[in-house]
Specification:
By secondary structure, the protein is mainly alpha-helical. It is built from six helices and no strands. The chain has helices at about 5-30, 35-40, 50-70, 80-95, 95-100, 105-125. It is elongated and about 50 Å long. The relative contact order is 0.16.
């Protein structure tokens, strides 16, 4: 891999880890608390339900793991790109607080996370796609 691509690959991995850690933390907070606990801190709508909050937290936590592990383990690494795109969409939807009522209440953070997700998707699709796994056939064949 050329030096420029290696540097971009490292930046993309850093972006993937940032997305994974951020959304995993946010998802676990949403899973662990009730709506009435989060309303004063995150500006949740009054009609937001705990079930909706927990479902979104679960989706965010699972997608955060999918951003890293498929690519890291070389098991269908394109899933990582799709998960990053999905997290970007969730971040953009979170800026529409009146529409969803389940955002973090910090639109700048959501836009920044969406920008990181867009960078990861662009880099993994157009510039430095994941390398196909090496042929791992047993040596005795």
């Amino acid at each position: 891999m050329p030096t420029g691509q290696r540097s971009l690959d490292r930046l993309l991995w850093a972006g993937q880890w940032m997305l994974a850690l951020s959304f995993h933390l946010i998802g676990m907070i949403k899973l662990g608390l009730m709506v009435h606990d989060l309303q004063p801190h995150f500006g949740l709508r009054v009609d937001a339900t705990t079930g909706t909050l927990h479902a979104l937290g679960l989706v965010e936590a699972v997608l955060s793991l999918a951003v890293i592990f498929p690519a890291l383990l070389h098991v269908v690494p394109k899933v990582s790109t799709g998960a990053a795109a999905s997290l970007g969409v969730l971040a953009l939807l979170g800026t529409a607080n009146p529409a969803t009522g389940i955002s973090t209440g910090v639109p700048a953070l959501n836009v920044a996370l969406a920008a990181v997700a867009a960078f990861v998707v662009w880099g993994r699709v157009a510039k430095v796609p994941f390398a196909p796994p090496a042929d791992e056939s047993p040596s005795y064949l």
